[in-house]
């Protein structure tokens, strides 16, 4: 009876916690409620396996739901999206790169002390509450083995044809906020993970795109500027680089990107593959986790087929977003990353955008054949917290300081490439996750510009608003095999 009562309290309490914290009114349809309660029951059974103490398992479930809803509310407030299964994979990055998140290292007293108290509390509860194991050694051993086996069988059952059909009927396509309202955060996470695994087992790779017919450019530079948009839209001073874009860019405008304030990999993948996130199904929440970069439509793969050297520049750690393996799979021959910027100047915690621009131009000057460079900057990466910049503690002021440096880096690149037959594309991966610029505040789009040097600037009609995948497709016209096979001796001679 104690086990049944503890489970009932855990399920009812979890429902109440989630209903109170939910962004939308939770569904009360019997089938939806059953799925939601089923997810709570599975979590309670999971904790029960470790202790065989029903009230400890029930308390652990309530704590799990409470922590989940706090994190979910924080994510929705900052990024405008509920928790999803791919966030669990990103958790490993938090203790390794705490400076990228609004958090502290595990060794910090504000984290370490509560964790220690929680461990001591669980140990004390474990000692006080009697076990619910059946009497006798054979029965106890059977119970200890049976419950985990049942949970594993249910997990693998979701991977069978019948299980996948049931999940597909409930979640035919990604509709995150609606599914969370129907089934709850954790049930939706479990379902989306299983749906993604089912998609991965049956999906076929997209067909490789044909090479452009026209002559391409000898130099193609694409720079993904971290959290970049026109600072005038946030009340900042006009950026000289924006005026230059208006005068000299072959095309520019607002760029529709997949998210607000984070998930750089979604924008990066869309640009490099020319694929909309919706075409990836449940894998669109984290294209790198799902596909690992094995994309025949990749701009880098296309450039390699055309004879280009392909270089990825990113002044941060190779393990972040697993970029080392992903970028190689996408078709980049050489990676210029954190260790290559060991002596580079920093502005705040990250390598400066101007130092990155200088390295890009050095790569261009040192080329021995046509080159494609894709760069992801870091200087303006959040969080914008007190102490980041001397004498500047306001988050918006910090952001505007960094975006000014991004503008200077764009002008440096434009100056350095203006004498080449070159394409320079710059764009913001997402809007900044500032306290004064949350999801729903103003225009969520970023800005982009496309320069085509060594040719006249088109007359009129250069303001074209795009989706980021369309910009990625547009860039394919910048690479072509004729460039790689041209007789121009400058192609084979390094620049001084």
TrEMBL record:
Lineage: Bacteria, Pseudomonadati, Pseudomonadota, Alphaproteobacteria, Hyphomicrobiales
Gene Ontology cellular-component annotations: plasma membrane
Gene: rkpI
UniProt KW Transmembrane helix keyword: yes
Subcellular location: Cell membrane
InterPro entries, alphabetized: Alkaline_phosphatase_core_sf, OpgB/LTA_synthase_biosynth, Sulfatase_N
Species, as recorded: Methylobacterium brachythecii
Signal peptide location: none
Main localization (coarse): membrane
PANTHER family in the record: LIPOTEICHOIC ACID SYNTHASE, PHOSPHOGLYCEROL TRANSFERASE I
Residue spans crossing the bilayer: 33-50, 111-128, 140-158
Name by which UniProt lists this protein: Capsular polysaccharide biosynthesis protein RkpI
Topology with respect to the bilayer: Multi-pass membrane protein
């Amino acid at each position: 009876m104690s086990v049944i009562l503890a489970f009932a309290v855990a399920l009812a309490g979890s429902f109440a916690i989630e209903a109170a914290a939910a962004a939308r009114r939770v569904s009360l349809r019997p089938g939806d409620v059953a799925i939601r309660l089923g997810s709570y029951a599975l979590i309670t059974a999971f904790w029960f396996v470790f202790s065989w103490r029903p009230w400890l398992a029930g308390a652990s479930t309530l704590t799990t739901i409470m922590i989940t809803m706090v994190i979910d509310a924080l994510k929705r407030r900052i990024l405008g999206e509920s928790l999803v299964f791919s966030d669990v994979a990103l958790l490993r990055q938090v203790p390794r790169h705490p400076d990228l998140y609004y958090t502290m290292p595990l060794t910090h007293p504000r984290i370490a002390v509560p964790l220690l108290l929680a461990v001591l509390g669980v140990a004390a509860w474990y000692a006080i509450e009697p076990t619910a194991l059946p009497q006798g050694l054979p029965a106890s051993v059977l119970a200890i083995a049976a419950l985990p086996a049942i949970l594993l069988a249910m997990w693998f059952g979701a991977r069978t044809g019948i299980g996948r059909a049931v999940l597909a009927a409930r979640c035919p396509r990604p509709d995150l906020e609606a599914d969370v309202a129907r089934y709850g955060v954790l049930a939706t996470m479990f379902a989306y993970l299983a749906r993604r695994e089912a998609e991965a087992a049956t999906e076929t790779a997209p067909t490789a795109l044909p090479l452009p017919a026209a002559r391409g450019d000898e130099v193609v530079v694409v720079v993904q500027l971290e959290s970049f948009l026109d600072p005038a839209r946030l009340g900042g001073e006009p950026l000289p680089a924006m005026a230059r874009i208006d005068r000299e860019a072959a095309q520019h405008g607002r760029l529709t990107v997949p998210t607000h304030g984070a998930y750089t990999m979604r924008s990066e993948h869309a640009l490099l593959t020319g694929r909309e996130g919706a075409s990836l199904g449940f894998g669109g929440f984290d294209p790198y986790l799902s596909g690992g970069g094995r994309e025949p439509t990749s701009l880098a793969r296309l450039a390699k087929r055309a004879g280009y050297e392909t270089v990825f520049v990113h002044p941060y750690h190779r393990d972040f977003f697993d970029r080392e393996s992903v970028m190689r799979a996408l078709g980049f021959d050489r990676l210029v990353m954190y260790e290559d910027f060991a002596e580079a100047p920093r502005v705040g915690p990250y390598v400066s955008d101007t130092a990155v621009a200088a390295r890009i131009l050095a790569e261009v000057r040192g080329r021995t054949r046509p080159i494609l460079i894709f760069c992801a900057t870091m200087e303006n990466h959040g969080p914008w917290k007190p102490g980041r910049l001397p004498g500047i503690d306001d988050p918006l002021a910090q952001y505007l300081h960094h975006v000014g440096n991004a503008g200077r880096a764009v002008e440096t690149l434009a100056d350095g490439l203006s004498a080449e037959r070159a394409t320079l594309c710059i764009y913001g991966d997402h809007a900044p996750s500032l306290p004064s610029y949350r999801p729903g505040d103003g225009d969520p789009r970023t800005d982009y510009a496309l320069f085509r040097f060594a040719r006249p600037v088109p007359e009129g009609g250069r303001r074209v608003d795009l989706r980021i995948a369309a910009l990625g497709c547009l860039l394919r016209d910048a690479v072509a095999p004729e460039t790689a096979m041209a007789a121009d001796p400058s192609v084979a001679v390094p620049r001084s």
